[in-house]
UniProtKB/TrEMBL annotation:
Domain of life: Bacteria
Xref: InterPro entries: ExsA-like_N, Homeodomain-like_sf, HTH_AraC
Keyword Ribosomal protein: no
A Pfam family assignment: ExsA_N
Gene3D superfamilies: Homeodomain-like
Protein's UniProt keywords contain Nucleotide-binding: no
Keywords: DNA-binding, Transcription, Transcription regulation
Location of the HTH araC/xylS-type domain: 182-279
Lineage, opening ranks: Bacteria, Pseudomonadati, Bacteroidota, Flavobacteriia, Flavobacteriales
Protein's name according to its UniProt entry: Helix-turn-helix domain-containing protein
Length: 279
């Protein structure tokens, strides 16, 4: 069962990823199960059918009385619960940029909020049913004012759900804003003060050394060797200034194979030798 990257597979013009767009989705008995990697926030407005959605740490059954707001970054495994039926829904994708614009326009600032559940369940009602019927992937493409119209539809549903669910929904919207360190940065920064070599940190990132170096330079705007050396030497200075440790106690933990190389690098960085700090 291959993994599908959405919304990428639905975008006809691969050179341009729209900030908001609609896709009419059907799942038939020919495709009972599917794996999905979700790279944009998405409403899944269910119209016909029911299915089970499996997330990393939980799962839930969705029927045609419910819709979902799903957070980007989820890896989903879905399966039809009634293999004789057709599953039909409208997928409404929106970028983080558009969400930030909306929150700045209509809501108050709130403290960073991390929602543990990777989805928000929406109970369909007459208004939502009418809204879903008004969505069509053919209505907002290659037409005058298409971008304006679909932005208004985006604001319409968010405002309605804010009115319907109040703070609970507002908090969830704020939780969709990325404010966490990327997995790559998390691995790098958790090993800053270790004695691991670049090759070993690259391995932990599941990357070749050359790929790791390119990704690192893109993330931090400087080569990994220099960046790590500076961070480790700064840590060494803090330890030595504490007065309880000598250079011979720390050079291995800072990533140097011998005391001489550590002392030379330290003096080149700070203009004084490690012993001058401890004396």
């Amino acid at each position: 069962m291959p993994t599908e990257n959405i919304p990428e597979i639905y975008i006809q013009n691969n050179n341009k990823s729209p900030d908001i767009f609609v896709y009419d989705f059907r799942m038939t008995s020919d495709v009972v199960k599917s794996k999905v990697n979700l790279s944009m926030n998405m409403f899944s407005f269910l119209q016909v059918g029911k299915k089970q959605v499996h997330f990393a740490n939980t799962s839930m059954a969705v029927n045609n009385q419910q819709s979902l707001l799903l957070k980007k970054g989820n890896w989903l495994w879905t399966e039809l619960l009634d293999t004789e039926a057709i599953y039909y829904c409208k997928l409404f994708f929106f970028s983080e940029k558009k969400l930030i614009e909306f929150l700045g326009k209509y809501t108050n600032d709130v403290k960073p909020y991390k929602e543990k559940v990777p989805y928000f369940v929406i109970e369909n009602d007459d208004y939502i049913a009418s809204f879903i019927n008004s969505l069509s992937s053919n209505s907002y493409t290659n037409r005058n004012y298409s971008d304006v119209l679909i932005t208004l539809k985006f604001e319409e549903i968010l405002l309605y759900l804010l009115n319907k669910y109040g703070n609970k929904f507002e908090f969830y919207l704020h939780s969709l804003i990325s404010n966490e360190v990327s997995p790559f940065k998390n691995i790098v920064e958790s090993n800053v003060h270790s004695n691991l070599k670049l090759e070993e940190i690259a391995f932990l990132c599941n990357m070749s050394l050359s790929t790791f170096k390119r990704r690192f330079t893109s993330e931090y705007n400087e080569p990994p060797g220099k960046w790590l050396q500076d961070k480790r030497l700064q840590k060494a200075r803090e330890l030595l200034q504490g007065g309880e440790l000598k250079a011979s106690d720390i050079y291995l933990d800072i990533g140097y194979n011998n005391l001489s190389n550590f002392s030379v690098a330290f003096k080149n960085k700070f203009g004084i030798s490690p012993t001058e700090i401890t004396n």
